[in-house]
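A reminder from the course coordinator: this example appears on the midterm review sheet, so study it carefully.

Given structure:
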C-alpha cells in the first residue's frame, strides 16, 4: 500500500511543485466515491488531491473515469468566471486542484444570508449554463462517445442506471421494467434540447462552499464536479433543490433569470425535469448496493428518496396520459 505522504509528494513533484514544502496532509470527509485529501504547503497554499477507487471496485457504469469529467467541469467553470477549484495536474489515478475558500453550506446561515446566497447561486449557475460542449453526454466516455442529440445521450444514461439497478438487485419502489416504461413515455420532450450545455448535476449544499472572509457570506466555490455532463441546463435544477421543487425557490430563480438563464416550466419542461429527478433518484437508490452503505443510510434513502422517485414517475404518467383519461 502506497503511503499517502509519499504519494502526495510524488504528485506535487510531477506538478512542478517542491515536494519538500508539503507540511500538512489530512483526509477530507463528505465524499462517497473518491479518496479526497487536503495538502497544505509551508507557505500556507492549500490544494485538494483526489484519488479514484481501484478499477475493480464495484460501482455504477457511468462512474468510470469520473476525474476526466471533473477536470472538464473546472476548466469550463474557469471559462465562465464561476468560482471553482483550478486544475493543477491530473493523471489516470489522481487529480490535483487548488482549494477554494469557505466551508460547506450548513445550518448556521441566517434567513437573509440564505436568500442572498440562493440569488447568487442562481446567477452563478446561469453563467455555467452558457458554456457549451462538443456533443451530449458524459465527457469521460464511460457510456461511449458524446452523442449528436440529447435524446440519444440521456436515454443511454437512463438505460445504464436501470441496468445497474438490475445487476445489483437495487431495492426500488417500482419494478425496473415499469420505471423504464414510464420514462420512455416522456422521451419525446427531450427533443426540445438542441444545445449541449454544461451541467454540474450535483449542486446540493454539500458541494457549495460559503466564504465569509470578506464579511458578507458569498459563494467561495462550486466543488465536486465529477458528475458533470453536457446536456439540458434544466437537469441542474434537480440537485439544486434536492428532494424538493426548484419552482418554489424564488431567490434562486430570480438570480438565474437576471443573469440570462431561461427557466420555463411548460409541459415539456416539466416532463424533462421529472425525467431528470427520476434519473438522480435512481442513482441514489442503486448506489447504496456497491457502496455497501449502513442500515441508517439505507433507511434514509428508502424513506426520503424512494417516495421522490415515485412522485417523479407519477408526474410523468399524469402528464403523458391523454386528456380524456386524466382525473380532475
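Designed residues:
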Amino acid at each position: 500500500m502506497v503511503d499517502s505522504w509519499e504519494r502526495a509528494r510524488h504528485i506535487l513533484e510531477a506538478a512542478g511543485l517542491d515536494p519538500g514544502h508539503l507540511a500538512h496532509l489530512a483526509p477530507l470527509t463528505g465524499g462517497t466515491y473518491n479518496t479526497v485529501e487536503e495538502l497544505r504547503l509551508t507557505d500556507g497554499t492549500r490544494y485538494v488531491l483526489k484519488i479514484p477507487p481501484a478499477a475493480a471496485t464495484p460501482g455504477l457504469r457511468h462512474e468510470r473515469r469520473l476525474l476526466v469529467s471533473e477536470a472538464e467541469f473546472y476548466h469550463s467553470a474557469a471559462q465562465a468566471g464561476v468560482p471553482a477549484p483550478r486544475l493543477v495536474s491530473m493523471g489516470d489515478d489522481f487529480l490535483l486542484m487548488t482549494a477554494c475558500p469557505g466551508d460547506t453550506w450548513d445550518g448556521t446561515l441566517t434567513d437573509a444570508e440564505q436568500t442572498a446566497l440562493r440569488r447568487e447561486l442562481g446567477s452563478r449557475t446561469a453563467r455555467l449554463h452558457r458554456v457549451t460542449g462538443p456533443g451530449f453526454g458524459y465527457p469521460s466516455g464511460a457510456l461511449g462517445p458524446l452523442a449528436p442529440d440529447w435524446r440519444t445521450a440521456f436515454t443511454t444514461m437512463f438505460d445504464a442506471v436501470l441496468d445497474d439497478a438490475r445487476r445489483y438487485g437495487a431495492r426500488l419502489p417500482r419494478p425496473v421494467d415499469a420505471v423504464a416504461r414510464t420514462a420512455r413515455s416522456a422521451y419525446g420532450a427531450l427533443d426540445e434540447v438542441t444545445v449541449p450545455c454544461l451541467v454540474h448535476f450535483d449542486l446540493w449544499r454539500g458541494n457549495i462552499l460559503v466564504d465569509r472572509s470578506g464579511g458578507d457570506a458569498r459563494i467561495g466555490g462550486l466543488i465536486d464536479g465529477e458528475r458533470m455532463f453536457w446536456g439540458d441546463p434544466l437537469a441542474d435544477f434537480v440537485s439544486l433543490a434536492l428532494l424538493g421543487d426548484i419552482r418554489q425557490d424564488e431567490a434562486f430563480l430570480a438570480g438565474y433569470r437576471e443573469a440570462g438563464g431561461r427557466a420555463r416550466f411548460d409541459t415539456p419542461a416539466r416532463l424533462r425535469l421529472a425525467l431528470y429527478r427520476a434519473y438522480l433518484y435512481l442513482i441514489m437508490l442503486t448506489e447504496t448496493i456497491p457502496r455497501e452503505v449502513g442500515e441508517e443510510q439505507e433507511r434514509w434513502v428508502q424513506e426520503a428518496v424512494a417516495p421522490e422517485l415515485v412522485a417523479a414517475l407519477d408526474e410523468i404518467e399524469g402528464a403523458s396520459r391523454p386528456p380524456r383519461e386524466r382525473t380532475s
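The chain has a mean pLDDT of 94. The CA atoms of residues 108 and 324 lie 50 Å apart.
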